Amino acid sequence: MLIVADENIPLLDSFFGEIGEIRRVSGRTMTASDVRDAEVLLVRSVTRVGPELLEGSKVRFVGTATIGTDHVDEEWLARNGIRFSAAPGCNANSVAEYVLSVLSVHAERRGLADWTRLSVGIVGVGNVGSELSRKLDRLGFDVRLCDPPRAELEDEADTSFVSLEEAMTCDVVTLHTPLTRNQPHATYHMVGAAELEGLSADQLLINAGRGEVIDTQALKARLSQTSAPVVALDVWESEPAIDPELVQQVWLATPHIAGYSLEGKVQGTEMIYRALSRYLGFPVRKQAGQFLPEPALSKVSFTSAADEDDAIKIALRACYDPRRDDARLRIAMRGSDQERAAAFDQLRRDYPVRRECSSLKVQLKGTSKSLQDSFRAIGFKLKI
Ligand SMILES: NC(=O)C1=CN([C@@H]2O[C@H](COP(=O)(O)OP(=O)(O)OC[C@H]3O[C@@H](n4cnc5c(N)ncnc54)[C@H](O)[C@@H]3O)[C@@H](O)[C@H]2O)C=CC1
Ligand SMILES: O=C(O)C(=O)[C@H](O)COP(=O)(O)O
């Protein structure tokens, strides 16, 4: 069986080597002739999957090792009897850790002694938003949830949701919706001139969902005003050809890597491996955990002398500091349009190994119970 796969899917041989012959191709430039003879197609988010790619091919199973599915024409696949599977939640924790790190840097720049005094509006409360909300709640932040599709469900009567308008009054507004069009609560350009107008210079807007959820032109116009909000973008309209002026205008600019922890990527591969195995009736013998190496940084230690807020931020940013990705993206924005787009993709292809907080053992000596609880809330392993 021929399996055509995006070369950026990690551990292809380890997971799929026993299932079939693997042909690696560039996800961004994959064409119909690359996949014509394949029975299985494995992609990430940069490959548009629909009739242009698959008409006339032998493909009967498509797996995307990502949470987002806006690159896949699911209706067409279903109409053509092609089984489809995604990887819901695979990198949700990675995105939540990205947001926490961004918050920690933002609070420090603002000179906030206690970062939990920030109110946080989470827009889109699915796997990512819920994971983030759980962590923030346990840390003691004031969290408000906005998710109109969920709010309409009968079994959600116990959860209190706010409108987008209200979420946008929080100190921090963080977007985690899928990209949807032509349906109730569609998110394409959901945040436009009117929503941006209401944000003040004291507020932070984060987008780690999809670039098209914010109207780029409206954002650029808003950011050129004196009272502009602080903005952190991980996702962009028309990736990889992103707008270099917008990169300059925002505070923190990263190349769509919020979900790029090693754990998140490998879990994505594992989820499509499981789905394919089930589809083919093969036993599921492999799991992500067996392929995760020892982390380069495995232990940190704090004593009672540590400032509690500082200790959390140091540990968080030892695992992941978004400012490194920001610096790399800004450098990559030099050159022609084509060079910039290629550099954006290259940053993602050659992304350094990043481990999640759960890979770091934190030793605490003589520290308070509340500090221990905060470390646990984020997901660190504790040694007391
Ligand atoms: N930056 C990155 O690296 C990553 C980005 N993503 C993006 O984040 C999105 C969300 O991921 P998950 O939470 O796992 O998806 P999910 O499908 O579990 O949850 C999405 C939530 O958004 C809600 N939603 C839909 N329309 C909305 C609207 N108009 N307003 C508010 N909420 C709305 C849904 O009801 C749902 O609860 C993905 O679809 C993907 O596009 C996901 C992983 C990594
Ligand atoms: O899972 C998702 O959805 C994402 O946004 C991924 O992190 C995107 O990664 P690539 O598929 O672009 O490698």
Automatic annotation (TrEMBL):
GO biological process terms on file = 'de novo' pyridoxal 5'-phosphate biosynthetic process; pyridoxine biosynthetic process
- Write out the pathway annotation from the protein's UniProt entry: Cofactor biosynthesis; pyridoxine 5'-phosphate biosynthesis; pyridoxine 5'-phosphate from D-erythrose 4-phosphate: step 2/5
Question: EC number(s) in its UniProt entry?
Answer: 1.1.1.290
Provide the residue positions that the database annotates as binding substrate.
S45, T66, Y260
Keyword check for NADP, yes or no.
no
Its family?
Belongs to the D-isomer specific 2-hydroxyacid dehydrogenase family. PdxB subfamily.
PANTHER family with a match to the protein in the record: FORMATE DEHYDROGENASE 1 (PTHR42938:SF9)
Q: How does it assemble?
A: Homodimer.
Could you identify this protein by its name?
Answer: Erythronate-4-phosphate dehydrogenase
